[in-house]
């Protein structure tokens, strides 16, 4: 595995070389993790043509939990907790007399950037323009393996919940139980706060669980994701509580199901990024549903829960092979409720069977 | 309560006026919340001499949970989720023809700052130098009331846990149970991930709970805090499992207890910020315990779990009245375990009874 990190760093070196940088200072935690395996802890990475140095706080817990296991091949610089690791790495860069340094201007605050500039007064600082984020788009087999495990954990937690009694329990409790179950099944943590929305809250984007209790006849929307070794997935399902869904519930669920399927089926290498969104949106709009602000139907997912590529209506790039993305349209009718269905899938060519579905919990309208 | 926000904004206006700014663009979420009551949601605040404008995402959940309740007196600008609210606020500032704008350079990334600069090409942008953070140091009665409730919630959750069977349970499960109990008692959430360390993990700073199970004879260190209406507290306690603590455990607990008490007793208005640290450190060092890197014994606490003032060995300012701080020394003996004891207290003059202790769970060495 430490080889995989070395390969990634070599690709960044090639990018730096081509862009005229003799060093890169990486501060964004997902990028540091991608290049070293180091979990988020405020570490910074200095990469020059010949060297690599990981500056990290000196008081990290020992490795007995495995959570801070690092490739032993990376030279480390232990920095007192009160000191910014980016500044420690910049100081080291200064001693190496680097001249052109790529920095992450979308991550460094103006204050930190100023301090780095002062420490490297003989060098020129230039934005790396999300170079590491671009390297991260297409996943290697280590990453896909972690994503598969994360998806399996979320599926297990959701499956167990569906077997329990739901009526009378609050959104908050159901959300907490799902988070606990994911950790029990080996997740680092929930990839994001679990959202549970019942009744009028169902189908809402970004709903924060409340003390509303599940009632007979409710729609119940669950949005959850596990994080495993830093890699997260996201899945949304909507169920109905009680034996007999109302006709409007059956109809709305069928509509969102169709839209989500159309979005999934539009995925493929070489396909425009906005194709899945268009496919899903056409179906929802055809039935008269337009969301207040047009949200992208999905996005890339990996070390960050929202990363490149974005699958929005105006995103014009092309999808690549081996890119994990979410596809998750939804409809919410104020005062009534709604449906949201989301999967995490990996873009694959048709010859390999098309998109690889990671989140396999059924999308049928289960009556619980 | 909306009056309190208006008073705070007026104080910031006075600061701006004195510093020659005709507008302030506030992006740091704790600062936006302090000035408007708006919980963290990516909102930005524009404050000019006569106006106030809160730019916030247009898809926030409705107010039925109370979590997004805002003072109705603040004009709002709904911004599509895909747009940066700081840029929307900057555009609005441009239309108002502001000339000197204070911005938060410790919060804005270089990229965002550049976009703001482009939108306000006729204005001069200058760092606010943490002006809002400085306003936030001394708390008003609304804030102290919320902190008291947060502390009460954490005490309740911890008290309940102490009544249950602990032997055989994992650190992870105990931590999750404490988080659940705090939410049950009305917390917004845990103020930070609860830390539970048992046996060799006890007394460690920043320990992440593992699957280690509580055993007879262990030290058990719990570090927890509730967040209530945005305000957090922090408390740490160390107990021993089983009927008879070993002599070294009794001795080490007594030592940290004494150091923590000395730190607490050193608090007072007008006292140097480093006095509590010195008082606690002297006792620990007198017994031969020196931590690897000298961590401050405490820090301010409120809308952020670590905020000004810092109570470190080299911090030379003076403490003010009505400033909530933590005091939490600890000793960890590698391979053996340790003790950490922390309280959240409000600095008060002796005439008013001295420091107000918020986290009242006993600090005695309970044998559980």
From TrEMBL, chains A, B:
The lineage of its organism: Bacteria, Bacillati, Actinomycetota, Actinomycetes, Kitasatosporales. It comes from the Bacteria. It holds the Pfam family Peptidase_M24. Gene3D superfamilies: Creatinase/methionine aminopeptidase superfamily (3.90.230.10), Creatinase/prolidase N-terminal domain (3.40.350.10). InterPro entries: Creatin/AminoP/Spt16_N, Creatinase/aminopeptidase-like, Creatinase_N, Pept_M24, Peptidase_M24B. Keywords: Aminopeptidase, Hydrolase, Protease. Residues 147-348 form the Peptidase M24 domain. PANTHER family: AMINOPEPTIDASE, CYTOPLASMIC PEPTIDASE PEPQ-RELATED. This is Aminopeptidase P family protein. The keyword Hydrolase applies. The keyword Manganese does not apply. Residues 8-138 form the Creatinase N-terminal domain. One of its GO terms (molecular function) is aminopeptidase activity.
């Amino acid at each position: 595995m430490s080889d995989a990190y070395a390969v990634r760093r070599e690709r960044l070196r090639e990018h730096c070389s081509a862009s005229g940088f003799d060093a890169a200072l990486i501060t964004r935690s997902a990028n540091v993790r991608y290049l070293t395996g180091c979990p988020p802890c405020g570490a910074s990475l200095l990469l020059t043509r010949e060297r690599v140095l990981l500056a990290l706080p000196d008081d990290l817990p020992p490795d007995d939990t495995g959570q801070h296991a690092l490739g032993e091949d990376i030279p480390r610089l232990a920095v007192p907790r009160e000191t910014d690791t980016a500044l420690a790495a910049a100081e080291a860069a200064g001693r190496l007399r680097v001249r052109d340094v790529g920095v992450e201007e979308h991550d460094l605050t103006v204050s930190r950037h100023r301090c780095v500039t002062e420490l490297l007064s003989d060098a020129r600082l230039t934005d790396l323009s999300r170079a590491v984020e671009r390297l991260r788009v297409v996943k290697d087999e280590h990453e896909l393996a972690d994503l598969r495990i994360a998806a399996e954990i979320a599926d297990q937690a959701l499956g167990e919940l569906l077997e329990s009694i739901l009526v009378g329990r609050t959104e908050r409790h159901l959300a907490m139980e799902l988070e606990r179950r994911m950790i029990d099944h080996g997740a680092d943590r929930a990839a994001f706060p679990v959202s549970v929305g019942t009744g009028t809250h169902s189908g809402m984007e970004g709903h924060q669980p409340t003390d509303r209790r599940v009632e007979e006849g409710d729609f119940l929307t669950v949005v959850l994701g596990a994080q495993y070794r830093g890699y997260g997935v996201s899945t949304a399902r909507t169920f109905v509580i009680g034996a007999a869904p109302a006709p409007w519930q059956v109809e709305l669920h069928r509509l969102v199901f169709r839209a989500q399927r159309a979005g999934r089926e539009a995925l493929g290498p070489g396909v425009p990024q906005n194709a899945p969104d268009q496919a899903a949106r056409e179906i929802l709009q055809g039935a008269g549903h337009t969301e207040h602000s047009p949200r992208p139907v999905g996005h890339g997912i990996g070390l960050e829960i929202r990363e490149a590529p974005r699958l929005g209506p105006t995103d014009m790039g092309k999808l690549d092979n081996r890119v994990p993305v979410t596809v998750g349209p939804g409809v919410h009718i104020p005062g009534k409720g709604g449906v949201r269905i989301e999967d995490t899938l990996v873009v694959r060519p048709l010859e390999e069977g098309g998109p690889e579905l990671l989140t396999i919990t059924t999308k049928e309208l289960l009556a619980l």
